[in-house]
Amino acid sequence: MFSVKDLYYRYPKQDKDVINGISFDIKEGEIFGFLGPSGAGKSTTQKIMIKILEDFRGTISYNGKSITEFNDDFYEDIGVSFEMPIHFSKMTALENVQFFMKLYKRNADIETLMKRVGLWEDKDKMVGEFSKGMKIRLNIVRALLNEPTMLFLDEPTNGLDPTNAKILKDMIHEFKQQGGTVFITSHIMADIDQLCDRVAFIVHGEIKEIDSPRNLKIKYGKRSMTLEYKENNHTVTKEYPLDGIGQNKEFLELLQTKDIETLHTGETTLEDIFIKVTGVKLHDEK
Ligand SMILES: Nc1ncnc2c1ncn2[C@@H]1O[C@H](COP(=O)(O)OP(=O)(O)O)[C@@H](O)[C@H]1O
Ligand SMILES: [Mg+2]
User: What is the pTM assigned to this prediction?
Assistant: First the structure.
């Protein structure tokens, strides 16, 4: 659906590229996560993909056609949420939404959408009085106003408490279930881990890995089985290699004879894998 090939980008008047030859494809109907520390080039890439930044090098196509050949109809098709939500603070939530609705030919049902994010009751409040979480939810309403086929979400979970983050993730999931395609960035791995069909690891404008979270865990996770069992009122922990576990006599005997407390394979979190693959920490990195 979206194809990015050998993309390079340098901001005007700068002496070096911030995007250094990245390539990736986003398939129709998938949630594609773009993951990396702050300053890696996530927002820049999103802005190029939605035609806000021009003069890039490389090719980007949407449904087989170069994005440079699209006119403003492109924006009828996509929904965008930026990192820093900007609304009119001296207008009510509903007035904000109505303003942006006028920019599109196709409109979603606003009442349903605002109810879905829990903002309908606050629709007549000035946005200036909104909490950060409410502003971010309003941002999502705006991204979905034109019933887009593809969503671009830049750090949508950033600054959301767990309840709001859950609403947001459920909505992204519903959007996918209805056939939508999503590009989502984050510097907080755990936030989008379960949501994404595939993720790309980006550091210093380069992609280091692209795969499904599951494959990454299999590829980089620890191939071991850890079990904990009770013995004389103490918890004993044992770890065995996953390969040949079915023939491992010691392990099998413990399973049959001990009071097992926990039993799990040694998957690593995506965040650990990110650090392993890139050598870069996701937080506090410039
Ligand atoms: N308008 C700009 N002019 C010059 N450099 C910029 C501009 N915006 C971002 N950058 C630089 O580009 C790099 C990538 O930034 P960005 O895409 O915002 O990263 P991320 O979204 O991953 O945090 C950073 O080094 C940042 O300082
Ligand atoms: Mg960013």
Answer: 0.88
